[in-house]
Amino acid sequence: MEIKKELLDELLKDYQKPEDVIGKNGLLKQLTKALLERAMSAELTSHLGYEKSDPAGYHSGNSRNGTTSKTLKGDFGEIAIETPRDRNGSFEPQIIKKHQTRFDGFDDKILSMYARGMTTREIQGHLQEMYGVEVSPALISEVTDGVIEEVKAWQNRPLEPVYGVVYLDALYVKMRHEGRVDNRAVYVAIGIGLDGQKDVLGLWTSNNEGAKFWLGVLTELKNRGVKEILIACVDGLRGFPQAIESVFPQTVVQLCIVHLVRASLNYVNWKERKQVAADLKEIYRAATAVQAEMELNTFQSRWGSKYQAIGKLWKENWARVVPFFEFPAEVRKVIYTTNAVESLHMSLRKIIKTRGSFPSEEAALKLIYLALRNVIQKWDTVQGWKQALNHFQMLWGDRIQAALNR
Fold it and tell me: Are 260 and 317 in contact (CB under 8 A)?
């Protein structure tokens, strides 16, 4: 709608400084109030079927019945408006609904700040500073608690029938549980669909990981529609291989090499870490499993007397290390590490580090979910996915097609 120049000139005839337009009691706030009240008056006229003071309204069974005051919070600060009423109480304004106390989009601002790790006190201060709006901790909790049902729906949404790779890893968060603050694990599952797009499949919390816990997680994924997982990349989670063999018996379980290297370097003094890391790289960068085993023996002959625990660690996990040697180099980059999860955790840790601990598991999952929404929006198709998918089709084409047809 084009606004006439003459109308603008009339509105601005007393303009002297910016505060006259955008200040606490400036023109924008006054105009917003006037337009909202005028719009609601027009809505009431439409609802009643006659104009104010129109004789057609006499004995119509319903009529105007004054106004009710309310204060709206939004980008303009706080605006007091008068909401018209009808005598029967059947009028439902649309532009500003009954019981609405905040402009559309204002709650999104609170959620956006919360998702970036701002505390309740910081959100209060920011809204006061930027918009001149006072909000209570109870209001912020009310807005953020509204996400809980969304979290439940997201956690139970249907999933794709086939995932080429699923990464599983844990993020440790301090939260109150059964009366005390514990350092509890929040497990994150990231799946790469056949289209090469990453998605977070769910979040789970537990004090004790093990076969029983992972059996529950994997059964949940299956109940939500997952028919096949081609490769599961994990960080040595206890009980996971046994659980996945029960639910998805044909899945290849690959140990995360990055985690294994990190665990190895925990035994090394800082002066020798660079050289030990370089020698370990010779193992997982080998062309074949046979060559990798030879490199492991070479490593042990060089470092075994000083760091015997490293060789033992690799030997114990060797069956879960070697699966990715069956794939060409460009495919290995996609499947051999949980870097996809690690980068996500790095983003999440930046957000939750402002919280000493969470009052409940629900509060922790609420913030993590909101943070996830922001991160996922920036994800692109996995690099090198076409080559990986072609290889998967050659190896497991029948499994993929059968899962899609089920």
Answer: yes
Per DSSP, 251 falls in state P
**Vertex 215: Cα angle to 208 and 170 (nearest 5):** 45
Output the six-digit token pair for 230.
Answer: 């081609």
pTM: 0.72
Give the three-class secondary structure for 237.
coil
Tens of pLDDT along 187-203? Answer: 888 999 999 999 999 99
Beta strands in 75-161 (DSSP E): 77-86
CB atoms under 10 Å from CB of 37, counted, come to 17
Give the other-Cβ count within 10 Å of 17's Cβ: 9
Classified as helix, coil or strand, 263 is helix
CA atoms within 13 A on the CB side of 77: 15
pLDDT in tens, 2-47: 666 776 677 777 777 777 777 777 777 777 777 777 877 888 888 8
114 exposure class (CB count in 10 Å sphere: 0-12, 13-18, 19+): buried
> For 177, phi and psi rounded to 5 degrees?
-145, 125
